[in-house]
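Notes from hallway chat w/ T.B., transcribed later so I don't forget. T.B. wanted the structure written out for a chain they're using in a teaching module, and asked if we could keep both sequence and structure tokens in one place. Agreed to drop them here.
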Amino acid sequence: MARLYSHTKLVADLTSTERAAMLGLLSIEFLGVRREDFIRDLNEKESVVLIRLENSEGEVVGFSTLVTLDLPGAGRRVKGIFSGDTTVIEEYRQTSGMGVGMA
């Protein structure tokens, strides 16, 4: 099985090819995905973890969108990470390369 690598990028730095791949993956896994809803939701996030085959330029086989939130907690502000849209092609869900990051 191919090795997977995760690579985190700012939403603003995503290429049109990466955005199209993400929309395609989401459309495979969920019914009724609309491009305009995907774009709106993506633009509300800060970054994306892209899961790729073999290297940081490989085929995108999964992703998760992320946003940092400031939350109230015990009299102080607490940072939280919210994961939005997330999907991985089924054949790669059980692989061990998910935690291997690229610099």
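Follow-up for T.B.: The mean pLDDT is 85. Might be a good example for the class.
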